[in-house]
Amino acid sequence: MNVQSHLESLRESVGEIEEAVKKGLATKQRSLGFHASAAAIDMLEIIFHERNLVDPGFVVKHEWLNSQKKIKEKFPFDFPHKSEILLLASKIEAQRNKLCYGKRQSEEILEHLVKDFNSLKEIFIEVTGHEL
């Protein structure tokens, strides 16, 4: 997927997360899990492709972010705010399956996910200059 396609998908996910915040996090748990994870992946791919860190066909698999070994293996290159970005993306991914497929989570867990996502989004905007 090209950068423009990733940006369109990212903006869709950001819109869905903002809608979940407005409607109430507890009622949109699955949407939060899916869209926060998908958006984090889109952000990574945009950064990687814009900086020519990966081949054009490179695809980030969300499950890689559940393993520090995989993160080191798959993302050996440097980019601005690498450790912060990968930490936030892995924190988001750690909640994904519980939110998407598990029992209802506490409001506190959902709020932490949104906080981590917003932090990641701010860093992404700083690194890329893209408006979301």
Which properties best describe this structure?
132 residues, mainly alpha
Structure description:
The longest helix is centred in the first third of the chain and has 22 residues, at 29-50. Helix content is 70%, strand content 0%. It is globular and about 40 Å long. The two termini are 18 Å apart. With 132 residues, the protein is an all-alpha fold. The chain contains five helices and no strands.
Number of strands: 0
User: What Rg do the Cα atoms give?
Assistant: 14 Å
- N-to-C span: 18 Å
Individual helix count: 5
Shape: globular
Main beta-sheet annotation = none
Give a quick summary of the entry:
The chain has 132 residues and is mainly alpha-helical. It has helices spanning 3-23, 29-50, 68-74, 82-101, 107-128.
How would you summarize the topology of this molecule?
Elements: H1 3-23, H2 29-50, H3 68-74, H4 82-101, H5 107-128
Helix pairs in contact: 1-2, 2-4, 2-5, 4-5
